[in-house]
Amino acid sequence: MRKIYIATHGDFSKGLKHSLEMIAGDSAKEIETFSLYPGASAADFAKQLMKELSSNNEDEYIILGDLFGASVVNALLETTSFEQVTLLAGVNLNLALEILLAGPNKLTDEDLEQIILNAQQGIRRVTIEKLENEEF
Asked: What does DSSP assign to residue 64?
């Protein structure tokens, strides 16, 4: 089974989960979130997750963090010492949706690279090109 965690600063993780539930329905309800607030410690969440990982080596864990090099992702870096953990930074709705809909099989390195590439493709500058002689 795949367990998905979204860990971010503030309520971003909760907002992503809510959006995923709107798009993907009940399949997103199992996603766990962590929101770092001022005065709290991401290290506490990492310790809690490390305990869970120590007692569960059967499930695949995908942890989606917000900012590479920031406190949340840095605190969770230790979880990658477990073979069943993949930690990805730079979470956005595209990436979270790709992970959620990736199917039940364990994700390979190739799968993860394709998922990241697909998520990056959703980042675009969007404009309307005006056609010559077009009137509004």
From this structure: E
